[in-house]
Design a protein that fits this description.
The complex is a heterodimer.
Chain A: H1 13-16, H2 19-34, E1 57-59, H3 74-78, E2 84-90, E3 102-110, H4 119-123, E4 129-131, E5 146-147, H5 149-156, H6 165-180
Antiparallel strand pairs in A: 1-4, 2-3, 3-5
Chain B: H1 2-10, H2 14-46, H3 58-61, H4 66-72, H5 77-87, H6 98-116, H7 139-148, H8 150-160, H9 164-195, H10 206-211, H11 218-221, H12 223-236, H13 248-251, H14 261-286, H15 302-328, H16 336-364
Helix pairs in contact in B: 1-2, 2-5, 2-14, 2-15, 5-14, 6-7, 6-8, 6-14, 8-9, 9-12, 9-16, 12-14, 12-16, 14-15
The chains are: A alpha+beta, B mainly alpha.
Chain lengths: 181, 366
């Protein structure tokens, strides 16, 4: 390997006094004083959240307002810090969504444990759990920091979705039910 | 009213001297507090931030225009900082030497306040200086001697804390002070040579030095002495790039690692007190003291001239304190061996050479 030796110009006397560098440095810092500040006045000004931001995990509904979660518990199993606890429950046969079979009776995410890794969102087969824009999560007690099912749906709201999976499933179950009789 | 003001400024009555002393300490503490604000604001500007702009008081924020100005300028922040220091819990670590641990902040602050008594701020109508101890011909010598005692506070704090970081900081501080004291003393000798040539009876009087700079500032006459003295006051006040005793990144907090609440506050005020003294000395000896600019005759007469001189001095002081902060964010901290080499191998020979050259100049030309 060829080695190229760079000739370094010896420092002049003036440069060796260290003073030109100091003056140059003072000029740099002075120019910084004149530049406008980049501070964001936080509580009044909010940062713009980039697309794909991983904020507080939430549960979402489909465009028809039905809950998507089928309480398969995959998120509970994959969650590295074990922040999610799901109590699965049956859907009564008389309910309109009986064809879904299962829904969470209770769904809790402990935000004191959550590490915002987004694995729950990645693993969810129903696209029911999403890490959305909320970045500030505060509370004064431990209990306050555990998001229950109602709170999760309140935070999550409805996300646009083009699958309409439950509509298809409903049609399918009705067709099957009709075929047998 | 004018009589009272005159008495307050000039009377040598013990009562008036006492009142002057209390007022002076109040003023110095206030300046120190606002120097902290200046430091925080200027640091913020250099780093592209806004600095303290939230603290306010209810009745102040109600005033239109001025209220928001005071809030955004952070003008109430020093009071909040001081109040916080005052009301914080003051834990005493169990492993310290208690008496000396408590004594150290006092020993650090007292010399800083004592030195300020010798500082002349302006010229009074009767031709004497506006200072608490006026006309002391040994003024500068006494100031150098007393302000150097401040390092005892640092040494005591480092030793009594029983902590390796504190101890290292204290040792560094002492070594640094000894190294730069010499060059500092030698650097100012030519200035006195100019102000009081052989045969005059001014001695080491600061007022005479300021008077000698009416035509031309000493920084122009003695640039090398000015530079050496400038570097030395940065080292003496333990400011960046010479903040060896504190060295936040390598010594945690240096000598005040174990201190909190108001004891830490006293160290803080002492540091700013030393900054004020250093700046004032530089202004008096090299930047024309209370003269506005070289060549500009004095404005006004009597007490008005005094007040204008006081204002000029104060403006220069604020600009110089800003310079301290400006340098802080420009030059990174020197390594300890670099500090020692700069002090002994560069500044001391430079100061001696400058002194000898001035001697020769005055012997043959003067």
């Amino acid at each position: 390997m060829a080695v190229k030796v760079l000739e370094r110009r010896p420092l002049s006397f003036w440069e060796r006094t260290y003073l030109p560098q100091v003056l140059g440095g003072l000029r740099v810092t002075w120019r910084n004083i004149l530049r406008p500040s980049v501070t964001l006045q936080y509580p009044e000004q909010r940062p713009t959240i980039p697309k794909g931001y991983r904020g507080v995990p939430t549960l979402v509904r489909d465009p028809n307002g039905r809950e998507k979660c089928v309480s398969c518990q995959l998120c509970e199993f994959i969650c590295p810090p074990k922040a999610i606890r799901i109590t699965p429950g049956e859907i009564p046969a008389t309910a309109e969504t009986a064809h879904v079979e299962k829904a969470p009776k209770e769904f809790e995410i402990n935000m004191l444990r959550c590490i915002y890794c987004g694995l729950c969102q990645e693993v969810c087969p129903e696209e029911a759990i999403w890490l959305q824009n909320q970045y500030s999560m505060t509370g004064t007690t431990r209990a306050e920091m555990v998001n229950n099912k109602a709170r999760l749906y309140e935070l999550g709201g409805t996300l646009p979705d083009s699958h309409f999976k439950w509509d298809h499933k409903k049609a399918e179950s009705e067709r099957q039910a009709g075929g047998h009789h | 009213m004018e009589n009272l003001l005159n008495d307050l400024l000039t009377s040598s009555d013990l009562l008036f001297v006492g009142v002057r002393g209390i007022i002076l300490i109040g003023i110095v503490m206030t300046i120190a507090g606002y120097a902290v604000l200046l430091e925080r604001k200027a640091s913020a500007w250099i780093q592209g931030r806004l600095g303290p702009n939230r603290t306010t008081l209810p009745f102040v924020s109600w005033i239109p225009l001025i209220g928001p100005f005071l809030r955004l300028g952070g003008f109430i922040q020093p009071a909040a900082d001081g109040g916080k220091f005052l009301f914080k819990e003051e834990p005493m670590p169990s492993h310290v030497r208690k008496i000396y641990y408590v004594l150290a902040p006092i020993v650090a602050l007292a010399p800083a306040l004592a030195t300020i008594a010798m500082l002349p701020f302006a010229l009074l109508p009767d031709g004497t200086a506006l200072a608490l101890c006026k006309g002391a011909d040994v003024g500068v010598l006494l100031m150098f001697a007393v302000s150097s005692l401040g390092v005892y506070g640092i040494a005591l704090a480092g030793w009594s804390s029983n902590n390796k970081f504190s101890f290292l900081g204290a040792v560094r501080g002492s070594a640094q002070l000894i190294s730069y004291e010499l060059a500092m003393g030698l650097a100012v000798l030519p200035v006195f040579l100019i102000a009081s040539p052989p045969g005059s009876d001014h001695g080491l009087n600061l007022t005479a030095i300021v008077a000698s700079q009416e035509g031309l500032w000493n920084i122009v006459r003695q640039p090398l002495a000015g530079l050496v003295f400038l570097v030395c006051i940065f080292a003496e006040t333990n400011r960046h790039p010479f903040d060896m005793p504190e060295s936040e990144t390598d010594l945690v907090g240096g000598f005040h690692t174990e201190y909190g609440a108001f004891k830490f506050g006293l160290f803080f005020v002492a540091e700013y007190g030393h900054m004020i003294i250093g700046s004032s000395l530089f202004i008096l000896m090299f930047l024309g003291g209370w003269h506005i600019l070289p060549g500009i005759p004095e404005i006004g007469t009597g007490i008005v001239a005094t007040l204008i001189g006081l204002g000029t001095f104060f403006t220069k002081l604020v600009l110089f304190l800003f310079f301290f902060v400006w340098v802080r964010w420009t030059i990174p901290r020197f390594r300890y061996d670099q500090v020692m080499r700069l002090g002994w191998n560069v500044l001391l020979p430079l100061a001696v050479a400058n002194l000898v050259l001035t001697f020769i100049y005055y012997a043959f030309a003067g």
